[in-house]
């Protein structure tokens, strides 16, 4: 297997070496049709940029959104591995989108990163091939959609987290347990909800569909859903709030309605953010080792960039229950 | 005034053009003595890299530490201006140091940034000249030491914030008011403390030295100092907590000692982080417009990098009081 040179590709397509190089580096000033033909030829010849050229450079860390302390925990984890390695970290976000568009991928390529870490977002298959051809490895942290086998991913076991949280409430004696999970179209929300359902099933309890809500992981969503759930005659005695921020919103809703936590209502969060230990009362939650996850993703990426094979395509960190003061037996 | 060429500098010092270029770009492989001589010559001839060459590139955003949601607010503010401008942002931190060492500045230079934003840290005068010679502008956000006139700085009026917070408590009727400010050697801590003192003076109240504490802006510090301050017979009826995280710690201390907020104790934070509205009870605090401050610093930097003069060397954002639920009249 010999690797085709850029000159070979240029000759085959009938363009200059500069044009091929521009396409490889994601410059915008190549006509769409020409670019298509160059990409075609690169694909056909399985062009792979030599990894040696990629051993230097920065890590491009792409968030779907820069919100809350969640993103900061990821950044700290990446930084803790990249810093001592001497690899700079470039941070950007997709304005809340979970899929980058072509222009954004092109901009990423222009920066010639050593590798890319995407957080709560992922690329389309064609974009992934575009990166692979340039020898730019990609690692995803906590992706929101079914994992393609070829993209290394670091996540946490969300189904297990939902199960742990709900089982804790059932064991305390709760029978009417509400859930406010994340957005409907985000995989981790669905996995946590599935864990909640399985905990009910395995204890022969029915789930009341009126108690299942979809939020967006913000405190505001916790407050809104909390007020609706708790302001009814057959109100739940416990809420699995799907995220620590949503849990803070539910706690505020309880306070507004004069409910005391955990006497009148148990609340459990998800994430175990640094502030979870400091809310009043301190939040019972599910620990996602965000920093460790981000650190593992970074080590994986640095290995891939240096041509070292990684042991697994997907690493799932184990979630654990952290019992503090917001959960107790029902009144 | 003609600008000396690199070749001119090289000839004067008696080294190659490559060596001068290496010194300019911060490469480590130049002998210390040689480097010194090159730097000398650059300084003598007031060598300034042409700004045109610096119009492209990334922003290097340097934190003293990546802690808490405070840093995330700054990153969001920088990103909100740099993103639409198409300028990438590289993020690093100084492991809690407020002064970068030479090796770190050299690494920064190797990356050839368009400009540098330093948050809660600053460079020595010699390092600033090193940057200026390379035409790399520097802007500081909320610097921790007296501002040198030549370094553009964006801050918030900390003295005013300390005054507002303390005056609010005095107006509510409090007479024994404790303060837990930040570290002793950080200017903003001292400015907030000075505002606290001035509020007392202007109301003809004496400050009890036993009620003045220095923390480190963490919730842990708030808890430790809170327990000590509140577990005494002549305990204060109000605490100005210096930061929202410290306020969360003080709230936990009050809870542990069975004190109800705001009935038995008023607590006021500083920063107005997103979560401040969601603590139970919701935190009264001083608003620092962190995102706007970071945005202004970024605009300043981009202007400087493009040779556009900036209107002021120091911009101070006005701090404002946000009254929520943790403050009230003393019992």
TrEMBL record, chains A, B:
Pfam families per UniProt: LacI (PF00356), Peripla_BP_3 (PF13377)
Alphabetized UniProt keyword annotations: DNA-binding, Transcription, Transcription regulation
Keyword DNA-binding: yes
Molecular function via GO: DNA-binding transcription factor activity; transcription cis-regulatory region binding
Entry annotated with the keyword Transcription: yes
Organism name: Catenuloplanes indicus
Record domain HTH lacI-type: where: 4-57
Entry protein name: LacI family transcriptional regulator
InterPro entries: HTH_LacI, LacI/GalR-like_sensor, Lambda_DNA-bd_dom_sf, Peripla_BP_I
């Amino acid at each position: 297997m010999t690797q085709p040179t850029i000159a070979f590709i240029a000759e085959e397509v009938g363009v200059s070496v500069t044009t091929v190089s521009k396409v490889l580096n994601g410059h915008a000033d190549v006509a769409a049709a020409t670019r298509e033909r160059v990409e075609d030829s690169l694909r056909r010849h399985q062009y792979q940029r030599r990894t040696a050229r990629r051993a230097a450079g920065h890590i491009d860390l792409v968030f779907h959104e820069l919100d809350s302390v969640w993103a900061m925990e990821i950044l700290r984890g990446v930084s803790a591995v990249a810093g001592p390695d001497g690899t700079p970290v470039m941070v950007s976000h997709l304005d809340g989108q979970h899929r980058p568009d072509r222009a954004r991928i092109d901009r990423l390529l222009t920066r010639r990163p050593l590798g890319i870490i995407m957080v709560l977002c992922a690329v389309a298959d064609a974009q992934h091939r575009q990166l692979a051809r340039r020898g730019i490895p990609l690692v995803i942290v906590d992706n929101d959609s079914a994992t393609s086998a070829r993209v290394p991913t670091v996540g946490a076991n969300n189904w297990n987290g939902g199960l742990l949280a709900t089982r804790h409430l059932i064991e305390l004696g709760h029978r009417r347990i509400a859930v406010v999970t994340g957005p409907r179209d985000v995989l981790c929300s669905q996995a946590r909800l599935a864990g909640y359902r399985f905990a009910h099933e395995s204890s022969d309890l029915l789930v009341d569909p009126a108690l299942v809500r979809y939020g967006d992981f913000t405190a505001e969503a916790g407050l809104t859903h909390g007020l609706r759930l708790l302001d009814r005659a057959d109100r739940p005695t416990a809420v699995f709030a799907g995220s620590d921020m949503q849990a803070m919103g539910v706690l505020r809703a309880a306070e507004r309605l004069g409910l005391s936590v955990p006497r009148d209502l148990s609340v459990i969060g998800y994430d175990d953010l640094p502030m979870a230990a400091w809310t009043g009362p301190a939040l019972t939650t599910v620990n996602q080792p965000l920093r460790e996850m981000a650190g593992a993703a970074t080590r994986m990426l640095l290995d891939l960039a240096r041509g070292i094979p990684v042991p697994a395509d997907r690493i799932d960190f184990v979630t654990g229950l952290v019992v503090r003061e917001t959960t107790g037996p029902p009144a």
